[in-house]
């Protein structure tokens, strides 16, 4: 027996940066029956683009496991064979806001970079000037 899940979607078909569960595939184990369990945790999410439109969707985390069951050695504490899906919804909502920085922010960053470069090379110039000045003094004392 092979179990295959081809698609499990929690949102409308739109371009958003959250991957979907594309596929899961499980092969039959060396036992008489199996217990398949899928735990899916859903987080409501809003994607807001710079123009203000909102896309409501869900992020998720998913885990799955398979337990082989031997019907002959079955005890009361073993789960029943089958396929189980467990969905959990979180109590909070995530908001992804996409925004662009303004042109003045770019100009401020460029001024800060240029000012830092100017200050650094001014210190290097002052240090080199002091070294050259000291060498000239030492050379004048020798003569």
Q: What is the beta-strand fraction?
A: 25-35%
Show unreliable segments.
16-20
Q: Shape from CA axes? A: elongated
Q: Could you give the distance between the termini?
A: 100 Å
Number of domains: 2
Count the E strands. 6
SSE class: alpha/beta
Order of helices and strands: EEEEEEH
Set down the secondary structure blueprint.
Elements: E1 3-5, E2 24-26, E3 33-48, E4 54-69, E5 82-89, E6 94-97, H1 103-142
Parallel strand pairs: 3-5, 3-6
Antiparallel strand pairs: 1-2, 3-4
Describe what this molecule looks like in 3D.
The protein is α/β, with parallel strands linked by helices and about 140 residues long. It folds into two domains: about 5-95, no CATH class; about 100-143. It has one helix at about 105-140; strands at about 5, 25, 35-50, 55-70, 80-90, 95. The strands form two sheets. Strands 3, 4, 5 and 6 form a four-stranded mixed sheet that branches. The protein has a two-stranded antiparallel ribbon with strand order 1-2.
């Amino acid at each position: 027996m092979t179990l295959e899940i081809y698609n499990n979607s929690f949102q409308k078909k739109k371009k958003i940066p959250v991957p979907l569960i594309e596929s899961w595939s499980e092969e039959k184990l060396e036992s008489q029956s199996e217990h398949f369990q899928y735990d899916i945790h859903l987080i409501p999410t809003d994607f807001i683009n710079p123009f203000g439109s909102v896309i409501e969707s869900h992020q998720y985390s998913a885990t799955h496991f398979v337990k082989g069951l031997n019907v002959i050695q079955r005890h009361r504490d073993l789960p029943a064979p089958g396929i189980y899906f467990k969905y959990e919804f979180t109590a909070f909502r995530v908001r992804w806001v996409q925004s662009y920085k303004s042109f003045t922010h770019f100009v401020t960053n460029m001024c800060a970079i240029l000012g830092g470069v100017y200050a650094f090379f001014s210190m290097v110039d002052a240090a080199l000037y002091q070294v050259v000045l000291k060498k000239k003094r030492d050379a004048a004392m020798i003569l």
